[in-house]
Amino acid sequence: MNQLLTFIRKEFLHVLRDRKTLLILFGLPIVQILLFGFALTNEVRNANIAIIDDAHDEASRSIIGMIAASRSFHAHALPGGHSSIDETFRSSGVKLIVLFPANFNTDLMHTQRARVQIIADASDPNTASTLTTYVSAIIADYQKARVQTTSLPYTISTNVRMLYNPQLKGAPNFVPGVMALVLMLVCVMMTSIAIVREKELGTMEILLVSPFKPMLVIVAKVVPYLLLSLVNVASILVLSVYVLDLPVQGSVVLLVAVSTVFIITSLALGLLISTITNSQQTAMLFSMMGMLLPTTLFSGFMFPIENMPLPLQIISNVVPARWYYIIVKSVMIKGLGFTAIWRELLVLVGMTGLLIVISLRKFKVRLA
Amino acid sequence: MHDVVIRTQELSKHFGAFVAVDKISFDVPAGEIFGFLGANGAGKTTAMRMLSGLSRPTSGAATVAGFDVFTQPEEIKRTIGYMSQKFSLYEDLTVRENITFFGGIYGLSDSAIKEKSDLLIEQLGLQGEVKKLVGSLPLGWKQKLAFSVAMIHDPKIVFLDEPTGGVDPLTRRQFWELIYAAADRGVTIFVTTHYMDEAEYCHRVSIMVDGAIKALDTPRDLKQTYQAPTMDAVFYHLARGAQRSAD
Amino acid sequence: MRTLLFLLRKEFRQIFRNVTILRMILLMPVMQLLILPNAANFEVKNITVCIVDHDHSVGSQRLVTSITASGYFKLALATPSYRDAMQLIEADKADLILEIPNGFDRNLVRDNKQTLFIAVNAINGVKANLGAAYLNTIITQYNAQLRTQWIQPTRFGPVSQIEISALNKFNPYLNYKVYMVPGIMAFLVTMVAAYLSALNIVKEKESGTIEQINVTPIRKYQFILGKLIPFWVLGLVVFTIGLLVMRFVYGIVPEGSVFLLYGFAVVYIFSVLGMGLLVSTYAETQQQAMFVAFFFIMIFIMLGGLFTSIDSMPAWAQVITRFNPVRYFIEVMRMVVIRGSTFDDIKMHFLAVIGMGIVLNGWAVLNYRKTS
Fold this sequence. Notes:
The structure holds three protein chains of three kinds. Chain A folds into two domains: 7-40 and 170-367, no CATH class; 47-147, 3-Layer(aba) Sandwich (abc type-2 transporter like fold). Helices cover 67% and strands 10% of the residues of chain A. Chain A is built from 14 helices and five strands. Chain A has helices at residues 2-17, 19-39, 58-69, 85-91, 104-110, 125-147, 171-201, 203-209, 214-242, 252-276, 280-298, 310-316, 320-333, 338-367; strands at 47-53, 73-77, 96-100, 113-121, 155-163. In chain A, strand 1, helix 3 and strand 2 form a beta-alpha-beta unit. Chain A is elongated. In chain A, 42% of the residues are buried. In chain B, the strands form two sheets. Chain B has a six-stranded mixed β-sheet with strand order 6-7-8-3-9-10, sandwiched between helices. In chain B, a hairpin with a 2-residue loop joins strand 4 (59-64) and strand 5 (67-68). Chain B is an alpha/beta fold. The model of chain B has no long low-confidence stretch (mean pLDDT 86). In chain B, helix 3 (95-105) crosses helix 4 and helix 5 runs parallel beside helix 6. Chain B has nine helices and ten strands. Chain C has two domains: 47-148, abc type-2 transporter like fold (3-Layer(aba) Sandwich); 175-367, no CATH class. Chain C has a four-stranded mixed β-sheet, sandwiched between helices. The longest helix of chain C has 32 residues, at 176-207. The model of chain C has no long low-confidence stretch (mean pLDDT 85). Chain C is elongated, with a radius of gyration of 29 Å. In chain C, helix 3 links the parallel strand 1 and strand 2. At the A-C interface, helix 2, helix 4, strand 4, helix 6 and strand 5 of A face helix 2, strand 4, helix 6, strand 5 and helix 7 of C. Strand 5 (155-163) of chain A pairs parallel with strand 4 (113-121) of chain C.
């Protein structure tokens, strides 16, 4: 036991000595949380839209006024000459053009019909359809205000409650995702590379011929990363509670416990990669391809899994991060307890067990 | 006496507060095999790196083949060969590819490269291994090959940093035969080692302790001065008081 | 010049000798390009609604029918109580709950108004917002239908109407892949180029061969160029593979000039390689180089506008994106491929990327020291 502690201390020194890597390890979750929290959003805001007003009348001006007041847009007038529409899209950041024909108000007054044209740059279909919807809604509002109907009969109204996230912030969705991503990254990459590095330098052989059991060599190697990862979990939680105002609704103890399970899963994966690769570069590419990408893709925090084609949905089931993401969301955001997550936890534990068994067996084969 | 090809005067290197090399002064004449002895951490490698233009001295003066180490490191590099304790050929290139590469880097013509590599391969008896990756060769062969590659551009001076670390006595012996052959052609050899039997092969030997040179003479005179039967005993006598231990 | 040739020959030999890495460099982008665009779909669809119908009337049945008929929603198992429905939300089996109160149909006639209760799982704010909006629209439409049925149409005077004609340019079928594929190509080229160059010099540092190089009369710029050019070529190979996949798998034909795309790729890869080499000159181990490179690439990609729009970012973040080469490549790819932009439209992009390339590479050359 004492021997093991000495060994762990040695591994710790290795990790702590590399200041640059350490800085990145701890900086990574902080930067991710801050970027997701304050810079990145799926919402459409400040989109550049151009308005060609050939009408210059009361109706067109009112609608333009309403558009300009919305924070979704950054509207500016575009002088006439419709031939330049394609040019406008190509050279500037304009996402949508609203076009009022001449005699807009007159038509509306006398024929009861007038037409507004919306031309969207549909290169980005999401933004295009969102912006079209927003502008249409503003025009509909204007129309409603014009009609000025007083209280219609038989009105069905709705009372909408936004559960868990009344202000519709992005944080509840991505904080659990960032946790999964960071833990995966730190554990898988760091362990696989650290072990392969010893193989490359030949020091692994020295460790393995020492009277120390190979199993303990591995344990000593992964313990520092386990602790570092727990520090990362703590820093993410502190940031999300105090900077993003996202409290932990459920039990913190449960959250840390499941995170520990997930960390062990990731460490086992890292170990497995280290047994099947021989150079740091290969190990790195393997971790990138095999772990990082699937984690980002299939955990469900960036892209909705239900939108994916069926084969990809099936693949997503074997990605540990997917299950961890569900658990963290349940415990941290929904405030649920153990009874709500035991199935997912069981899947995760099962995966971990399997990974450990496979990688230890591979490891032994290599020794023999 | 031949011309002096390496001359140092109070050459020093500091890393922060740590004085790695402390005011060393010596001359090495052309064609000499100059042994540079010292325990691990005594400052041998740092001194050698300064002389080969890899590391900038903190103070003092030194010239190598007439070039100043402060102002003309690139000119020095053109005239010297260098082989470090860390094996330094590309393991993922073949024997011939390594020779060709370094020949090309030193600006040898294609015909010269061809001629040199054929000669080299024959001298080292590597005809059967030409197409093998260097990484797959035994350490002893790698080292002999590295030495020959360091000599490919016919340098006037060769710096060898613990060239025989980790190989068996027979291979070490063969290695020293290569060194002697080079010295016979008039090449100056500057070699660090911590094998005391190798010190006996050198024309002159300097012994470094804690960054400073404690003794410099022929092996025979050193043994006489310190009344010791072997170089081992001389070294022990001098290094006993060392403050720095191995790192 | 001749020295450079020897360096290049050596680098290429090393690249081709490591078959595993080579295979990964070439296969990885293809695989990613096949998977990513299929997975990266932000469209909000498949919203599952759970209806708690306390009324069980003809009216409530019709409302449910119009919700299912809209095509936006999938119905979850009907539950008798709100509490049961909540359990479905907790288990992620439903996104929305619609509660229809007892006597809804009857009271609508009697009291002239009724309120429905909607609860939305809002962890994903965007999805929640859109889901609630869709449901509201359907209820409003249902409401309007009711009115026209129950009230004599004559009571309505002629209402003036604004017709909206919407036109979608460049991507009329709103195909999300058309948007994602060019962006993902930019991302892949960046990854390959930055990682390989970041690892390369460090690898020589770790194996000690760099000492042997440093003691030769080789020039710094020669050495750096010797490292740069092979990865430049590899980057362009990856880019070409990407273009082929884009053309033949996704059927996307660039609207603009392919030469323009290559022209931009050439300068862009140059600047990304500079970034990698810079990392490489600072790092001592491959592990370190990898992490530092990963860190910066991650930030560059996140702030590159690949998945989220740059326009929606706050002003300070938009300022940062101006110094992000990845942003420019993603923009150029989308502009030229989808909108057919010409050199004139992207000349500022060229300028920015060339500028960054010179700074990064110059810095790398300066920072690579033959003499310590």
